[in-house]
Amino acid sequence: MSFEIKEKDLLARVGKLRTKSGTVETPLLFPVINPVVQPISPRNIREEFGFEALITNAYILKSRFRKQLIENDLHRFLDFNGVIMTDSGAYQILVYGDVEVTPKEIVEYQELIGSDIATILDIPTGWKVTEKHAEQTVNETLKRAQEFFTLKTRDDILWVGPVQGGRYLDLVAKSAREMGKMPFQIHALGSPTEVMERYRFDVLVDMIMTAKMNLPIEKPLHLFGAGHPFMFTLAIALGCDLFDSAAYTLYAKDNRYMTETGTSRLNELEYFPCACPRCSRNTPKQVLEFPQKDAQTFLAEHNLYVCSAELKRIKQAIKDGRLWEHLEMRAHGHPTLLQAVKRLEKYQDFIEKHDNAVKNSGLFFFNSVGLIRPEVIRHRKKLTETYVPPRKAKILLLAPQTRTKPFHKSKNFAELSSKLQRTFKEKSNRIHTCFYAAPFGIIPIELDEVYPLSQHETVLPLDKETVEYVAYRVFDYINRTSYETVMLLNDSENWKKIILNACKKACLKKSIKFKYINTKMKQNKTVLAELGEILLEK
Ligand SMILES: [Zn+2]
């Protein structure tokens, strides 16, 4: 295998991709090199900015530099001794219509110039197209992919099998399924550029997830044309490993300054919110006075630094098991990104299945957006699919979450618990305590030290959706178990009457006894008296 996964978080991974020009770490950004005009030299891109790989266009090379390149291999021609990926010209087809090159020629040409990673001549679907046209692009790309294996002669190049289909998800699924059966080393998702330009990140989520769920998950996935750092976290969290960016120079030409949360116009900036070597030495006012070409180079260089820094932050977040927190933080950079994160609800089962069950750090739960994170889903599944309460338990004692974690070690609860033991002796094992807590819902006392049920921080007061989620979990738990009595220690300060009502409703439905005490767990005596009464009735 040319791809080895080292660390995982959500669907993201830090991996090693082996090519004939060396091994590179993913997630990896390939800056796009335009061999005709290039503000930063390929050598500098590696030596100064630390990018180990770049991408250039085989179609442009073939049509403009054919002669120079036949005498020189690609690495010498570009003066770059890292990893070079070539795109086939598919994007040019999208922009200019047909290109005067056959799929066979473009395969042979990439083998001739010695690309490390090469792409077959696919047909990009595009955005404003009919389903019929989209289907044709998928079928023609699949046909070319099959033919490709009869054309290739070198085994040391990693070949990319692109997935098409655009916003037609059934077609994306078909394309991914069929492409995934062929022995390509890398897959790519084609034509999301327009989706991204329109800020339809929710559609992008659908496209990436559909491709991901139908491709072999162990193979690296390239997202074509996703070159802005403010969306790297989203794409990486969904399992994209490779990216290319022409945006760093395209934005520069347009006086646009990238940040990890969005884009600013150079003339609107009073300060540079960046400490890269370029921004540290200049002010926006000074750069505006640069000759146009120098200002563009300045912006392109800064843009590359921002991309590089954000990728490092993401890799560290994956390693720390904090990618979800990073994703939520970035999602608040733009409403459309947050909308995209909310869209993950649709894919929660798949993400949960592939996410690490134990991570290096606890969870920060900010608001109801966090209810779809895999840890919350996993606990809910565990509780509804496999959990069975202790055999002797007849009374469910529902206690509120406390600031101290694990909850059973909080001072008030520990006191109550030891009094229960002393007062009721062996009868106390008929009482089963569960905590109601955000964001997990119901936490049986014997599980409250299991990761991450004690390893999280929440915000009080909770938002309405979170309170309702926990209340529904309480209702569902009572409904699916067979306690004879439910006793609620009602924390009305944090939960108003919402948990109380959920309990009442569930107990009524099950025709079981329900009691409650409004408490901050200070009235242990009352609790004991009530429980005594219930136990004596038995
Ligand atoms: Zn900068």
Produce a short descriptive summary.
This protein is of the alpha/beta class. Helix content is 46%, strand content 18%.
Descriptive report:
The chain is of the alpha/beta class and 538 residues long. The protein is 46% helix and 18% strand. It contains 24 helices and 20 strands. The chain has an eight-stranded parallel β-barrel, surrounded by seven helices. Bound molecules: zinc ion (ZN). Residues 272, 274, 276, 278-279, 302, 305 line the site of zinc ion (ZN).
Task: Give the topology, please.
Layout: E1 3-9, E2 12-19, E3 22-26, E4 28-33, H1 42-47, E5 53-57, H2 58-64, H3 66-71, H4 74-78, E6 83-87, H5 90-96, H6 103-113, E7 117-119, H7 131-151, E8 158-163, H8 169-180, E9 186-189, H9 193-197, H10 201-214, E10 221-223, H11 232-237, E11 242-245, H12 247-253, E12 256-259, E13 262-265, H13 277-281, H14 284-288, H15 292-320, H16 323-331, H17 335-342, H18 348-354, E14 363-365, H19 374-386, E15 395-400, H20 411-424, E16 431-437, E17 441-444, E18 456-458, H21 464-480, E19 485-490, H22 492-495, H23 498-510, E20 513-518, H24 524-537
Parallel strand pairs: 4-5, 4-11, 5-6, 6-7, 7-8, 8-9, 9-10, 10-11, 14-18, 15-16, 15-19, 19-20
Antiparallel strand pairs: 1-2, 2-3, 12-13, 16-17
Helix pairs in contact: 7-8, 8-10, 10-17, 12-15, 16-17, 18-19, 20-24, 21-23
